[in-house]
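Record pair follows.
FIRST:
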Amino acid sequence: MNLQKTAILTGANGFIGAHLLRRMLANHWTVHALGRAKAGVAWEERLRQAIAENLPAQNTPGSADLYCHEAEFSLPDLGLSGKLPIARNTRTVLVHLAGDTRFMPSDPMAQQHTNVDNSLNLIRKLHPVISQVVHVSTAYVAGNRTGVILETETNVGQGFHNHYEKSKLEAELAVSASCRQLNLPLVMVRPSIIINDLRHGRSSAFTHLNVLVEVANRIRAYYGIGDGEVVNREIRIPIAPTARPNAAPVDPIVEALAGILESPAAAGKTFHLCHPSPQSNEEVFGLALSAFGIQGKIQLRFVQQLEKPLTRTEEMVARAFRVYLPYLNQSASFDCSNTRALIPQYNQMFPPMTVEYLAKVIASEKSNREQTPFAEKNHDLRGKNSVLSPQP
């Protein structure tokens, strides 16, 4: 008798979560999505809006197999009204995606509580009905290390670029200990920076790729480029041209994550979900300028550090990329041995970034800009902390 595939999913309204939810329903999972109301909007409505935002013009298949439950992860009983309606003879997996991804939270202890304490509370409360935990962390628990980061490595005394990385490592350690104590099989998944989807160029999470598009757009507007005139303005940017930030489109990452969920062989292992061959900053910046039609009209000079005086454009660029610099300039690479062993076609799932792809990102960002002013989405351009961070 085949067991019904059932999942309890947190973070279904996030960028990765909405894509994963749709893939799971298409793969005939019954999904219980846990979340909370916010600003007077019920959780089910918030999830519906997130699906519409992340998956435009696409119906969510198998909606009859989706159950939405109001929950508060910090409460001892999770705020659930009664037991989850999970049938017997099911393989029920907790897929934990929810978390606080801000690099510079105003209250680091609140972020710690969200990423560590809430994760433990979920596992303890749901332990009687789950058979496995899939904990979605980040490849950047590696912190400020260099060289090759192995999937088998966790805490090796590394330092961190921000509190987000530190809290996610502590969550990994705490979740691993809790699952051992409860004798629950654990799968640890570590994505890198997740960027815009391949089909539409959309991203509800604000990543450095969106910042790059917005910076190029502002440069073009500032210098009035658009009439074919060659401007030849030199702009210095404090980014290593040969560095290869590990940014991966959401589509192949979700496809790989869905494959991990389907495989019994994944239990007890850690998987890096990272781009197998990321492109250099110089190449990506060149593609972005080409997509805007200003390649050769603006001269970018990559420098290790910006020396004063700075032009207004250079000040804007420095503010925009400030929180992203550790990732743009990283010299680490991520071992994906477990991932490739489970998914042999993994390397072929990542097409190279192209002008056509960035044109989709530009069109998507233009549409978003018309709906929400850029300054509301990224306070760094006004010299303040970013309110949204990349989603590693």
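SECOND:
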Amino acid sequence: MTPSVRQALIFAVCGLVAVILGWQLADGKVFSFDFTGIVAAGAVAISAGAVLVRVFRLPADVALLGAVVFGYILGNRGFAQLMLAPSLPILPAEAALGLAGGWWIVASAFERRLPWDRDWLNRLILLWLIVGGTRLFFDVRSHGFLAIRDFAMVYYATFFFIAQRMARLPAAARYLGGCFLVATVLLPIGVELYGLFPRFFVIDLTVQDSPLIYYKGDLAYTFVAIGSFLVFFVARDRHRFWAWPLAALLFLFVAAGDNRASLCGAILVLVGLLVAWRWQYAAVHVFAGAVALAVMIVLSVGFQNAWASNRLHGIVDRARSVADVRGLASYSTEESSSKGDNNRFRLVWWHTVVLDTWNGNPWFGLGFGADLAKSFVQEYSPDLDEEFTTRSPHNIFLSVFGRMGLAGVLVWTALLGTAAIETWRTWRRQDSGWIVAFWCGVWVILVSACFGVVLEGPMGAVPFWTLLGLAHGLGRKPSEAETIPT
């Protein structure tokens, strides 16, 4: 874009905003919102954006996406509830999608190119949006806002195209990767502090009476697992002496945690790397895990240390609970006592979603806005009827089947199959650096999404689609990928 065109565009937008605000001020209101709060919040947002653009010397849309990703990882559910003003219900993901997505369309027009690439992954994601949008067209009349809310699991895929375009600029790819890296490394500190001082985070550290940081356990540990892969594969030469032990510590943090889905995701990716003959990550982490396990055994057996004994029992219980599908086993620790019930919770819900959808509309699903939990609550625990608010059955494939039927499942499976082929080719080429770590992160999130509410909300969906866009974008431009410094 030439400087004259850019300046004309800026003047046009500012002039339009000035006219609208002037008209509303003359009328004594601004869309019936709290004008003072909106102006203050807008000024803070603009100032923060200006600082990011100035410091990193990047376009505003790149700086915004990186800030939103950083916020979702480190702030989690708390950051997801932030709004410019209480009366202006625009959440971070939607704000980033509107601004960065709008510029993605405009910039593509100025560059005289399509907003997407001509390959199978791009085509399948476009088809995903089309199938979901067609289903929404019929559902929004019946369910209104609830349909749009459930449709988020589809429209967040737009972040793939935005990130893919940004991956063509080495500085942008480095900045976005850095946002993921720094946030995931800092996250364990945040999780530990949150556990030690919950009152401070929930009551004191608030914005508009909502916590700024509020962790959802499965997502927090999933992102820490991604941090382990990022630190390991991005490090080069002498930096590996401190980076690889740090990556091992992050992996052990996940293994010692209470979340099974994130650990399953990390282990499956580790196995995938081994099959692709990338053995360094597995060797370092198996060695670190063996050392940690030996230390706990010595402390537990030799010194009768209560902490080590509880940790060992917890590891055994979590391993047993993975195979305890019906939730009938008994567990030795209080922390693991709910694992079996959680398994039964998921099994019953998955069963009812499959039956309801198959009997209702197997080809195109029950639709966005439909209550996928109604039959489950009646079968699992009727007493929860008025308290149960979760809308997704803790499995992305069953969410897709319940909302979009077999048509959605076929597109979703083809999309992931194409991504799996590209991942395998990337790993087998022995590529290094950001691109390998991005693909690892994609699959850690996806595995976690098979056991929790992850891709149905912005906390998991925005990082997932951004990672997928970056990984694919860098893979399409190998020469640019090599120029990204570590």
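COMMENT: Confidence is low (pLDDT under 50) at residues 14-33, 478-486.
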